[in-house]
Amino acid sequence: MKVLIFGAGGREDALAWSVGRSGRVTEVVCAPGNGGMAQRARCAPVDLKSIEAMVRLVEAERPELTIVGPELPLSLGVVDALAARGFRVFGPTRAAAMLETSKGFAKQFLERHHIPTANYAVCSSPAEIEKTVELFHPPVVVKADGLFAGKGVLICHSRQTAAEAAHGLFSGALLGESAGQVVIEEFLEGDEISFLCLSDGKHVTPLVPAQDHKRIGEGDTGPNTGGMGVYSTDALLDPAMTEWILRHIAEPTVAGMAAEGAPFTGVLYCGLMMTARGPMVLEFNTRFGDPETQAILVRLESDLVDALEASIDGRLAETPLRWAAGASACVVTSSGGYPGSYKTGLPIAGLADAAKVPGVEIFHAGTSLKDGQMLTAGGRVLGVTAAAASLEEALARAYQAVAEIAYEGMYYRRDIGHRALGKAKSHSS
Ligand code: AMP
Ligand code: GLY
Fold first, then answer.
1. Which residue, of 165, 270, 294, 383, is most buried by count of CB atoms within 10 Å of its CB?
2. Which residue CA neighbors atom 16 of ligand 1 most closely?
3. Distance from the CA of 282 to the center of ligand 1, in angstroms?
4. pTM of the prediction?
5. For 43-52, how does the pLDDT look when each residue is reduced to its tens digit (9 = 90+)?
6. Would you say domain 191-318 falls under CATH 2.60.40.10?
7. CB of 289 sitting under 6 A from ligand 2
8. CATH assignment, 327-428
9. What are the distances in angstroms from CA 235 to CA 124, 239, 246, 393, 424?
10. How far, rounded to the nearest angstrom, does the alpha carbon of residue 120 sit from its chain's CA centroid?
11. Ligand 1 centroid distance, CA of 168 (Å)
12. CATH topology assigned to domain 2-93
């Protein structure tokens, strides 16, 4: 069968790799893809901001399965447009994707369905912002409604900075575009977990848990990024906690969306804070995480295509997933200067040697292939990913492979997995 994947990042390269391992798949098309995907699959140019362009491409390619990677095409309704034309497509409808595209909708949905989340208020005028900020104790979290690639969330250490941030998001002064609504919420403390599930509209199947590293600097310092690395081990969540999260968060979310007339099919990514009061939802994403997908898929032993089709067809309850025991880790290498400005078009050396490290898969995020030479083409360049029997070994393999790779200005965090390793040490001492 032929599978088409929309997107151009590390997540989509990992999806292309995993789909390519399915015994049923004969052809993978990536649109638009990147330098790494051009080596695994055929790439077809497309504008992910244009529904018409995406529909035209699917009509020309006629894939048996289309997978939508990023949030932007989901927010535009690409799944609705393709499904209406009879194509099989994995991902939520535009209405179901509102769990990610509108933070105001998501918070009010969580409240309606009694799903644990931080206390909050949604403000839709400057006067409301002034009144609301007075009710919160610093630190106060201020979030823009809408898709702002992680840049729309500000943690403010005084009421005054919170009010300024909320006014800035509301007016458009901070993001260049007005947020329309601003969510002001309670600051939660704890460990963050990325809890991703597949849903077929009724049933929920969890993927293995992961922990992302969003800040650019070691020790979780400096500005937020798209994600500088991630790891996955079963030790992140014990079976009782996984069960609790399914019963109190993931399943009520899927049941609630169905009850509200927007059944959720696709990946429900629950961004959770493990607080002293139990797990609470920080945010939903309605797609695979990036770089979580890289670390999750290297542990998947069953066929990804079977699982995605079961989600589309409402058969997830009969389609259990098998996972490799142990752990995985993904170390992102970025361009010097990221998340600020950076150079592109720089040659990348050492990829072949890095790929020889046992258990390692190198997923490309921001690369392009020109005359046989791999070049940097984005802020996050590579996701060097390894699976192994233990987290220590997965990290050692990933860093051994990273050490083979070189390009001008290459940066990566040397402390991916530090929280889990620190805990293991403190338990044993
Ligand atoms: P979001 O896009 O809503 O997940 O927010 C981005 C990041 O901001 C999260 O991954 C958290 O690290 C942080 N964050 C969001 N909401 C809160 C909160 N209520 N308390 C503490 N940190 C938060
Ligand atoms: N890793 C965070 C995200 O995919 O949004």
1. 294
2. 282
3. 6
4. 0.94
5. 999 999 999 9
6. no
7. yes
8. 3.90.600.10
9. 42, 9, 17, 15, 10
10. 24
11. 18
12. Rossmann fold (3.40.50)
